[in-house]
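Hello,

Our lab assistant flagged a job as stuck in the queue for most of the afternoon. It eventually completed. Since we weren't sure the result was trustworthy after the delay, we are filing this so someone can double-check. Below is the sequence as submitted and the structure that was eventually returned. Let us know if re-running is recommended.
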Amino acid sequence: MNRKTIFSLLLLLLFICPEVLANSFERERNAMVRSQIRARGIRDQATLEAMRAVPRHLYVPAAQIRFAYQDRPLPIGYGQTISQPYIVAYMTEIIRPRPDHKILEIGTGSGYQAAILAEIADQVYTIEIIGALGKQARRKLEAQYDNVHVKIADGYYGWEEQAPFDAIVVTAAAEYIPPPLVEQLKPGGRMIIPVGSPFQMQHLMLVEKKEDGGITTRSLMPVRFVPFERAD
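-- returned structure --
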């Protein structure tokens, strides 16, 4: 049976037996958390629960649904990707999100990372520069959450009118850490951002703002993200 036939059968099940398919996805999602995330060291319970709760298959294109819970990033169109599940969980855990937090995300993409954050934090503000992706993500997120706010704009400048933020998550690789994002980070807050040249190995950086406003940075791991896009 070729891939096209398998995909056709999957779509048929989606319309004929939605409960059966939902149960199948739930099993895949639980297996994803068990084998790809918890087994690799993620221990924060809020993060693990969010990864179990959010249906990743709803945040990928129809042609990618059968791969939704595999251990890899997936294309979502417009040269963008949805990150590998482990990386989403790692970036979530490292910012130490809490139920009273206001979090900024730069690079909404399909909306998956914002949905994970929305399961934990009080308010999530997310910015996408690609209009079509931003509109798609807004429709999905607003149908599921009342604590996610989507803006289509250049994420370099953050969301000044909603600052400061307890944490900031950047899901695209910048050549340097944007100063406006550092300014919008609350004292005691954390930002996670991939830094490096486009289409080369980058470094996932943790930025921490001290209570006195001082900044520390730490390289966590090598990564490869799509470039941080800017408005013309």
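-- support follow-up --
The delay was a queue issue, not a problem with the job. The result is valid. The CA atoms of residues 46 and 120 lie 6 Å apart. The radius of gyration is 17 Å.
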